[in-house]
Input
Amino acid sequence: MDDSQHSIGGIVLGSDYSEGAHPAILEELIRTNAESSPGYGSDSYSARARDLIREACQCSQAAVYFFTSGTQINAVTLGALLSPWEGVLAADSAHIASHEAGAVELGGHKVICLPGHDGKLSPADAALYCEKYYADETRDHIVTPGAFYLSQPTEYGTLYSLAELRAFRELCRRYRMSLYIDGARLAYALACPENDVSLADLASLCDAFTIGGNKCGALFGEALVVPDPDRLPRFFSVMKQHGAVLSKGRLLGVQFCRLFTDGLYEEIGRTANETAARLSKALADKGYPPAVNTPTNQVFIRVDAETFRRLMEHHLGGFWSAEEDGSYTVRFVSSWAATRRNVEDVLAAL
Amino acid sequence: MDDSQHSIGGIVLGSDYSEGAHPAILEELIRTNAESSPGYGSDSYSARARDLIREACQCSQAAVYFFTSGTQINAVTLGALLSPWEGVLAADSAHIASHEAGAVELGGHKVICLPGHDGKLSPADAALYCEKYYADETRDHIVTPGAFYLSQPTEYGTLYSLAELRAFRELCRRYRMSLYIDGARLAYALACPENDVSLADLASLCDAFTIGGNKCGALFGEALVVPDPDRLPRFFSVMKQHGAVLSKGRLLGVQFCRLFTDGLYEEIGRTANETAARLSKALADKGYPPAVNTPTNQVFIRVDAETFRRLMEHHLGGFWSAEEDGSYTVRFVSSWAATRRNVEDVLAAL
Amino acid sequence: MDDSQHSIGGIVLGSDYSEGAHPAILEELIRTNAESSPGYGSDSYSARARDLIREACQCSQAAVYFFTSGTQINAVTLGALLSPWEGVLAADSAHIASHEAGAVELGGHKVICLPGHDGKLSPADAALYCEKYYADETRDHIVTPGAFYLSQPTEYGTLYSLAELRAFRELCRRYRMSLYIDGARLAYALACPENDVSLADLASLCDAFTIGGNKCGALFGEALVVPDPDRLPRFFSVMKQHGAVLSKGRLLGVQFCRLFTDGLYEEIGRTANETAARLSKALADKGYPPAVNTPTNQVFIRVDAETFRRLMEHHLGGFWSAEEDGSYTVRFVSSWAATRRNVEDVLAAL
Amino acid sequence: MDDSQHSIGGIVLGSDYSEGAHPAILEELIRTNAESSPGYGSDSYSARARDLIREACQCSQAAVYFFTSGTQINAVTLGALLSPWEGVLAADSAHIASHEAGAVELGGHKVICLPGHDGKLSPADAALYCEKYYADETRDHIVTPGAFYLSQPTEYGTLYSLAELRAFRELCRRYRMSLYIDGARLAYALACPENDVSLADLASLCDAFTIGGNKCGALFGEALVVPDPDRLPRFFSVMKQHGAVLSKGRLLGVQFCRLFTDGLYEEIGRTANETAARLSKALADKGYPPAVNTPTNQVFIRVDAETFRRLMEHHLGGFWSAEEDGSYTVRFVSSWAATRRNVEDVLAAL
Output
């Protein structure tokens, strides 16, 4: 039987999408439930959510679109940004390269992987790749690098600095490429003191970027910001063609209205980051220093095989990778719903 | 600017997805909101929803999958049922042929249209097409008919009889084709006294069929029933590759659990059908006989140009088609949320 | 076993690709066989062939590409001309709609069929379709008409007039569409006294058109003319990606050099047209008037079932269609290789 | 202007597709030119060529198909062997990974690269990859390894041993994968004394493999051998859909008939291998030892920048790669058409 058919219980600090919606979001969905509105995102909540996001990005002309899933938003948008002969450059740990079941390739595009550094693609590596490509006389037989896929924060919870993103923008200018940033966990980056990249920076540097809701307190939903709408013409039809338009589009509008009112989006990020920092410090005190230096809502530690099995048995955190020396890297993910008790449970088991 | 970016108000009896969720569904989402569960449909609510649907279909071995959108469920499933060299036969009014922006073709498959009869594909027309195809010596140069796409009820609110579906099943057997039924509005068919096709019949006749939630009282979501799971191997991965897996999959599980408890799904259908029947009778009494003889939740009438403009101005019902004689066909769609007042508003405007 | 694996004998006047190459073409391939040249069309013969074609089209800036197969050139080029959300409008008898196994749909695009008139799409029908599309408020959910596919001559051997092609060009201007003409049998159109459309006209009206070699005396090969090269950027890479670049590209260059020297291309067309005209007249004299009024190298007649069987038994001409009254339409196709004897054989059998 | 539009002269030992056809092949094309035969490979020459290839492979039930281009045969066949959720494992130097412009990805499949060893994928590396994949609990979110792509000889002219191919076969059995071998230069492997893999071995080990003509003396063309025809159902239609069927299919039949008569295919390989061995020895004597230990028709040496420029200026051999120390790897490719004089020219320039 297919793997999707089994059923298992919840995991402590296993992910940031284990619960439903942040209470404030849920409240809005309840409040507006009986209202009647036109479909496919042409309602007033969606219009207002787009306005609020434009305002937060200081980009009044941006187009904003809403999706339900992260794999969908990545594949549809990259497919629209890329020309048919182009591929997308990404770190080998990029979500599109590893855990989206080949969605980008299904759309006809190669994911060109370069070795990542704690989840980050280095502008220097990227520059070298492009330079070599354009120096190769047989390049017309080779997939053209057409876009950069970055995630902020990365799959390892690390952050790109503004200087790094500017370096990618410069590469885009030089080689006519697009910059796409996957912000599935963007709330945690924006709320992070170490972060120097604002929504306005993203809007001024990217061809498109996402503002995640699924992992950041929404019931469900992701937003796509396209600072220059001409970059993605007829994008509603493109989304529809991919089955990515929700008939009851206002559900996404209602949620993003709330996320971008009274600073809720960043507040959700801040709460989770603080929990993660507390956990990280306590783990280090117990002899488990962070395996990756990450300032956001994910904490990675290395444990021996026996400890690993104990954590898994008690449904505490998740498997990340098996190391050559027989040890394991385990990941804990915090969210708005993480509790002091969750942290204590983890510590107690170690 | 893209058409998706504008915003307009709600329409009376314009569609069955204008409001949020049926109160009983919303209640369940609220009740379970704080619970923690594993992702991607591996939670216990999704497991139970699959069980309830299997039970309702009297098909204990069926695989059940949940999607968020109807275009998505049609395109992904047909893509998986069809071999690369096959196309799908459908009535020319079929939703996949007209209003899904070419999603099936995006997946590489031709939609082969035959003239519909009040929205229905006729088994006789279908048989003739297949017979001719297999008599053609150049058929290896021609797209092979690989599946039938039917909708129950159809886009015109009409119903296939059990005898008709059996005729299609027989064609499938003879020509090695698949039978796929789009049940986006299935609740209205199931609740209809004229209907003689049960969920168990669908499970015994179809290779795959859908049970719509978006247009039948759910907040969002569609279920896919695959009576013989081997027909769609590795389907979780196929869905993931299409961006069709919701990380917080339990949201779909919770909703379908409720829809298939205490007969809610059919109750939603019944209420709406009754409102539609009331409206239809009142319209006929006022001199507007039904343009299509439909027993479900949609009512079609023909009006002159001036009446059409008046209805549109007052946001009553929706444009369906412009006729050659200058008149218009207008559609009214009922739902669980339709009120006596809605019906009165329409009648008052005529 | 697959249908492609059986083997049968040759057919008299069955097609215009039954023999090898016109002797003058073969001679050139022999003469140049031992020469060494760079690959993938970067040789001097291909360069010269492109120049000769540009000259014949009076279009010095055109890009010219060479392919091996007609289905390939249609699918790759239409795929490149169309945006992802667009489909191509064609007559229902169009080769892409009927006998290319769904190659255009494989590339993700819908073929939107309108009823043809002796194989021709009517500008009036096309205009009406586009007008209705843009008047439809739900058009963002519907495949956008993005190009016209015409064949010159058509699959029925009929011709578009210059006035008709100008009408299509005007529709393209009005609705931002592309005009693509499949010239698989273009030699027969160009050589036809009734024809008023020159290569220069095609170059001034089309976004892309093909000059067929396979059915017009070449050993193999088709040429694509793109009057404005910017319409198909990076097209070499696009072709490569579709496996449509011949490593020994000079073979195509050598052949098209010869076809466009000393008027060979039109001479091949003229010879075949004359044979067809002779056959057509003789058939009419014998009581078999043309079923379609065609001035090029194809002749269609209607015969009763017994005559049909006799023709097929003697391998004379090919099945075209079975008619409702039990009769058959048979097609005879002339070429440079058709002989007086071939014509006599057909007449003798009737 | 597109890169494909320029024109340059021939290169000495630059490739094995610089000339036309081996004289014996050309002779057959001339001899059969005037014959009339049915199209699309249903002629008697194609039938006989299929028989000859089956015989050479000692595999009487095999299906054999003919294509015109190598990129085409790889992409269409891999696309047909793989399920939608599968990717193909290959060495990073594999032709499909580097120089086919993303043709496999265009078909929706990921090329999963592992580091190659002189162009070869190691069975041990492949086994480790598969083992890890199936041990990963999130594997349903990851592209499934569905086939191995090997080339014999490889892009570096090296050979897989029978033992290695058996190891891959065993992995295929264990993980339900397909084994595909690209034999674009197979003649050179078959003719090589160091080679212990026969055509019969390939037929017994592979799900599909190709017998190259373009680089092995044919005017053009590649053959595909499918030992178990059921592995690729309806493959003629699949080819047609990809524009990969030549209307004048007999051209391919005629050529492969000749290649598999009187041992011509291996003779072509032997001649070229001997020339390459002579060149390699002479280069080593002059202080240029082989950069890769290859027994087939390609010779790789490393030269300093000045020598590299001199070779390129005199059109001798081709650029392969630029090394970190400023030197260059140059490749010389021998063929049936390579002459003693060619070898002398290279030696004289060093």
In short: Chain C touches chain D through 77 residues (CB under 8 Å). The two ends of chain C are 35 Å apart (CA to CA).
